[in-house]
Design brief:
The chain has 344 residues and is α/β, with parallel strands linked by helices. The chain has eleven helices and 14 strands. The strands form three sheets. A six-stranded mixed beta sheet has the order 6-7-8-3-9-10, sandwiched between helices. A four-stranded antiparallel beta sheet has the order 2-1-4-5, covered by helices on one side. A four-stranded antiparallel beta sheet has the order 12-11-13-14, with helices on one face. The radius of gyration is 24 Å and the shape is globular.
Length: 344
């Protein structure tokens, strides 16, 4: 049974349709992933659903109620909560306080109760505190104990992501919108967040709509996958169906050349014999951050005159490899050669 549905949703910025007649639905208890290249309109879709942007046209329905035109706090009170592509916490508030904020949409005490510290207000504050601690306990030992009263800025990046999810849980939502929950995480952390998303549905009963670029996570959690490009839905179905759809492959990799042979002959780079000369080599590089090896024997060769492109999902180590070759990251082993000179 569908708990949430969007139909004909449109949002334009300066004549450009960032979301263009978008339709989707989410069934109760489902985990649906939204994928697509950068600029496809995924985060704009979330901003429309949660009232951060007003939609130009279309309908947003949750439990049969129209949400279009409601402000964000009223949408939250209806049972929809979200996280953000870029973590948005209150860094100088404690971990516990950050999660307690999520309960304020459910609290009854008014301004006077807070000022006068009435017995009813104190009871409600204690209830909110217990509720926040219950959400944090879902994440094991990472966010409880002595950490409860630490400011949020001391947390690692992955734990900040977890804290933001805990705050969304504290709103007593039914539908969670997770915007790139694995962004910036290494493979081990991505595997943990994948298990966490499944637990949110299986143990806590959340219905989940998630935006993600990491296809390992998408494959691991999704009941259905929706692909977007240029603000439109271009494919929908199982992970296998969507990731093998020609329109999705084209959206990520571009159109294939119709003619295999180049239109004009190009001069071959390299030496007179036609053999390319290797200008830059990152050889068997091992390194990372905080004891976690992101590069594990990575070797990259770039020939003179070449344009080499490094591709891979978030957390694959692309930027780390660049930093290692530029000397911005000290590696445990391996070396970097520039025109046969060791510059490690």
């Amino acid at each position: 049974m569908s708990i949430f549905a969007v139909s004909g949703l449109v949002k334009s910025f300066g004549g450009l349709n960032a979301v263009d007649h978008m339709d989707l639905h989410v069934n109760t208890g489902e985990i649906v992933s939204v994928i697509g290249p950068n600029g496809a309109g995924k985060t704009t879709l979330f901003n429309l659903i949660t009232g951060f942007y007003p939609a130009d046209a279309g309908s947003i329905q949750f439990r049969g109620e129209e949400l279009r035109g409601l402000p964000p706090h009223q949408i939250t009170s209806r049972g929809i909560a979200r996280t953000f592509q870029n973590v948005r916490l209150f860094p100088n508030m404690t971990i516990l306080e950050n999660v307690m904020v999520g309960q304020h949409s459910r609290s009854q005490a008014g301004v006077f109760g807070a000022i006068l510290r009435t017995p009813g207000q104190r009871r409600e504050e204690e209830r909110v505190r217990r509720h926040a601690e219950e959400q944090l306990a879902f994440f094991g030992t990472r966010l409880v104990g002595y950490r409860l009263h630490q400011p949020a800025f001391v947390l690692s990046y992955a734990n900040r992501r977890r804290l933001e999810i805990a705050r969304a849980m504290a709103t007593e939502a039914t539908l969670l919108l997770l915007d790139e929950p694995a962004a910036g995480m290494n493979p081990r952390e991505t595997a943990e967040i994948t298990r966490l998303i499944s637990r949110l549905r299986d143990e806590r009963g959340f219905t989940i709509l998630v935006i993600e670029h990491d296809m390992r996570l998408v494959k691991g959690v999704s009941d259905r996958v929706i692909a977007m490009d240029y603000g439109r839905k271009i494919a929908e179905g199982s992970y296998q169906e969507v990731t093998t759809d020609p329109s999705v492959i084209e959206a990520y990799l571009g159109r294939g050349l119709k003619n295999k042979e180049p239109a004009v002959e190009t001069e071959q780079s390299g030496n007179a014999s036609g053999k390319q000369t290797c200008s830059l080599i990152g050889e068997a590089m091992v390194g990372g951050y905080g004891g976690a090896d992101i590069l594990k024997g990575c070797t990259i060769d770039v020939n003179e005159g070449e344009i080499a492109v490094i591709v891979g999902p978030n957390g694959a180590g692309k930027s780390t490899a660049m930093k290692a070759m530029l000397g911005m990251l000290e590696t445990k082993s391996g070396r970097v050669l520039l025109k046969d000179k060791d510059i490690t």
